[in-house]
Specification:
oxidoreductase activity (chains A, B, C, D); 14 helices; 7-stranded mixed β-sheet; Rossmann fold; homotetramer; Myo_inos_IolG (chains A, B, C, D); oxidoreductase (chains A, B, C, D); GFO_IDH_MocA-like_dom (chains A, B, C, D); Dihydrodipicolinate Reductase, domain 2; 40% helix; 6-stranded parallel β-sheet
């Protein structure tokens, strides 16, 4: 057997653990050598159980380990950029959870560091690897539905986050809609030019008090002339609602929610079927495995990763434009945000 | 048998004929006594065949017939208001096809005349009587999905109208979206407060040259705090696409397209099912009958019609706001349009 | 206008009334001149309301009316054959509800009389004209699914008939399954060669006490080599269940139940959709109109009716074979039944 | 970490490899210590790659290894019974692929040996662990659809096996339908009392020449009074068709095929969706993992396995009854087969 790729996972909350477990179960060529987390004591039993030998409080232990080839940055958002910069300096390939940062400045710095170091870098926009959305992309690309004219994304969470979280989340557009902005760019094959937000606080007043909204309709104008709309809610009573429709000159393609079973029950009361899979861990289970697969393939075959640095930046710019649109009650061009930052 | 209600149909194009035939086939208490149309010669064989005895070139023949209780105004849009005013003066009950007019002034005049005369008046927003949309209304009203938060309407035609028609149509918002504006008010149970349009010419450049657009996403803000979005296209390759989704605090209800059959064919090539019913005559067939039924019930039982005068005005105001929003690239409040007109 | 075809309806129970109303509403070339029924007093108000002028107790009044061109025989099953024979003698075209009779002898006599008289004759197997089943037929005929190999029919009623009715009904196979036997012949394009019944009394013990069963699986062998299965229940808690699947060498086609609306409601409790249309009057509404249309077309264009005499006989033979199969616990060939009768 | 359960896999064809890989990826408490196969040379690279250390030609090497706690018997059907007997003698727990044998005698012997040894024994009826079918079982058990009255199984393969295989397969009923017989028992909660087969050779004449059939409708009578039907084809042009419907006194539950995506594509040509997942490895992927999980749970918690010895015997008896029914053209009781064997 060839030498395995050695991986260190920085941050082993829910998503860090998930990536580690996927690598252990499905990637015979990859070894998860070590994990680091400020609260590592809580995760030692887990690490032991899945067979990870080294556990650290300080992520620098991983960066200083010359044997480690790859780091997965799954720590809190505010640390992504800094750790990326340090990791790039040590020459390690980087998988970084989204978003890279909530500010354009720090994203720019991180991306420069990565570019300079010449390491592989992939952002955790896992939905690109979802079976349903990949199929949409494929059909759009094949030209089966012609030129894209209207793109529609429905993205609703089953339950709102606590107001405490909302305060540090960067707001709904950088925390939740950012995935949808990535999808919009990915599926349309075009950059977003302008956004307009109609938003409201309808789910939880505490979210409004925290300065955010919980319900939104975001209109999009793409550079290629297409238009689009995203609708978000922080709380869908029936569960996680993730649907996409692309309408083109020759037809449309539509994907809907996955369910646990195909059971349809008919009784005197009516006809019943399954609710959507509960939340992102269930619905996007396969996509997390796929994104790892393509990331390691890019490393092994020394080719571009499927979600490059620019893909980490653009959705943040759109998110900032959306925020401004809502605050000022007018359409905002992405260029306006870019110029604002470049002039700084 | 009691005396039948006697009806005159003014304008026997496609929709006038449809109403007449429905009355003849399904309303034993109603007699279609006469029809009038500037091109009546083209319709004489039809009238003879369905058993209508009197055919006129001039609609005034109908208005002057004291025996006639009810007129259906199915002539060209620019004549709706004037004929409504004249008909009201003769004391006849009025069913008027949508829109009443393309201008607020003429609508106001017509509605005043109707009010003054105390006759029944119903506008032809037939979609309210569609089996699917009625069910949505019912579920919203019952509170099964809680308070309305997001309302989504997809409304796409199978083929664009000729550019000649587009020029006199009043534009996509008064010609096509007007039905969706009515649906939005009807299903949300609230007035629209503000609209914002993202539009494009993607179907036919001739439509653009005629000063109109053919593809649009219209964001809506309702007075009750809900938000909404309508997406329109003048051409869906797969046919007439008419779907509505209402999302509320306790769930959602979604209706999709009707098809001719439930057949699902599975072969080596894939799994195939029916396209939507071709166009509005097929899809809304039942709704045209239902709107007549409720109109004549209102007359017989002397109660309010289900689509009153105000329902004829409001969608036009929203349409005019949408037009302005697109032209000026900003959200426009309905009040702005109202004030504009009241200040004249 | 040409002279209208004059029709007399014999028997104005539920189905006779339905045919009369359809003719009045949708067939401008047809006049329902008179109706006859032993209990005509109960139907006089109805006749008056829909505009039928002549009402009789005795159906002979209709047969003796030289003006009448066509009779619809919608009386009780035991009278179908005799009235058909009498009507054929007067030269009137005949539409006869199914089944022609419960005995082969009387069907044979009726069919001979019809043939001798040279009048049109159509049996009321309305399901052939159902939009879904017609589509299945079309696809089978087109060869899109190749040679038919397996045919499956699910046919379940929403509620069992009273035991009193069961006693005179001829049993489930002649009363209920007879429609499915017709479908089997129609869709496979082949005669049934042999049947085998697995049956049970699971719905209502009174049905068992009346000498009948209420739940059955009927295996079919067709002359062309295909095989098939029908499953019946007298009571489906969720309503009328009418589905058909044809599986062939190149694929399958499947039609399912019609519903009143396409509404899908998602709440915390689950995802809900409509139950099937309640019963045959709702589900097969369109088919009753279509069968009339094709019957009168056959008369007007002097061509063969779409459901000929033989189509009235064969399902009865299959029903008798099914009865014998259940009683004797063995597969029974249709030929065995035929020979039994021809040897009498 | 506790001592891992040590497993030997006997036979590493497609299914043996699948089980080994599932254990390695998802069962941290289990170690696949060794594998044996007469053609082990073909599988050495695979074993090395997934990290299995010991590979043998002779399965006795596994049986003689005192460290091994559990064997998975995935060799050819004719060896299942003998190896089970030998393994039982060494005190190892046994997972045995279906069927245990094609003859009742050898199954009886194997089951006696297992019982005597007191080891755990589970037969590879993986479909019981399929997400869809488990849900059906759950709903039936909960009483949501009342008492089971009709059970319907559709089970069609995407492509027929080679005639060579057919000759040694034991025939369609023991090779293919055996899974459906298991499902019938499992879902109805009752034993099958009688079967009747309507069969045909419609897919491949070579199958007929090999003495088998390729298309069948199998009627079932259950001991609890319910009835059922299975339809089989060796070749569905559109792929693997696996659907089940259970109809009861209070309603029905129906599960249909899984697909790779939920994509619906609408174009001028029609509306298209995914074909079913290709074959059993794709469709039943999850079920193979689940059956291992429940098997090892039974070992760890020292409780009864979910598919016990009797569950290995009964479907073979039903299969033999089905064979006889087809050969003799009559319904055959399971008791008849049992008595035949017990009298030997």
């Amino acid at each position: 057997m060839e030498r395995k790729i050695k991986v260190g996972v920085i941050g082993v909350g829910r998503i860090g653990k998930l990536h580690a477990e996927n690598l252990i179960a499905h990637f015979p060529n990859v070894e998860v050598k070590s994990v680091a987390d400020p609260f590592i004591d809580n995760s030692k039993a887990w690490a032991d159980n899945v067979g990870i030998k080294h556990t650290y409080k300080d992520y620098k232990e991983i960066l200083n380990d010359f044997e480690i080839d790859v780091v997965l940055i799954c720590s809190s958002t505010d640390t992504h950029a800094d750790i990326s910069i340090e990791a790039a300096k040590t020459g390690k390939h980087i998988f970084c959870e989204k978003p890279i940062d909530l500010t354009v400045e720090k994203i720019d710095k991180a991306l420069s560091a990565v570019e300079k170091a010449g390491v592989k870098f992939q952002v955790g926009f896992n939905r690109r690897f979802d079976h349903n959305f990949k199929k949409v992309k494929e059909i759009v690309k094949d030209g089966r539905i012609g030129d894209v004219q209207i793109l529609k994304i429905t993205s609703r969470d089953p339950a709102p986050p606590p107001a405490e979280y909302v305060k540090v989340s960067g707001g709904i557009f950088l925390d939740m809609t950012i995935h949808d902005f990535d999808m919009a760019r990915y599926l349309s094959g075009s950059e977003v030019e302008e956004v307009y937000v109609t938003g409201a606080v309808l789910v939880d007043p505490a979210i409004g008090e925290a300065g955010d909204i919980d319900t939104a309709i975001i209109s999009l104008k793409f550079e290629n002339g297409a238009i689009g709309v995203i609708d978000n809610s922080r709380k869908a009573a029936y569960g996680y609602d993730q649907r996409i429709e692309v309408f083109g000159s020759k037809g449309k393609v539509l994907v809907s929610n996955d369910t646990d079973t195909s059971a349809i029950i008919s009784t005197e009361e009516g006809v019943f079927s399954d609710k959507p899979k509960y939340f992102f861990l269930e619905r996007y289970q396969g996509s997390f495995r796929e994104e790892m697969k393509e990331f390691f393939n890019a490393i092994i075959e020394n080719k571009e990763t499927p979600v490059v640095a620019k893909d980490g930046l653009k959705p943040v710019l759109i998110g900032l434009a959306a925020k401004k649109s809502f605050q000022e009650g007018r359409p905002v061009k992405i260029k306006e945000i870019e110029e604002e930052y470049s002039s700084k």
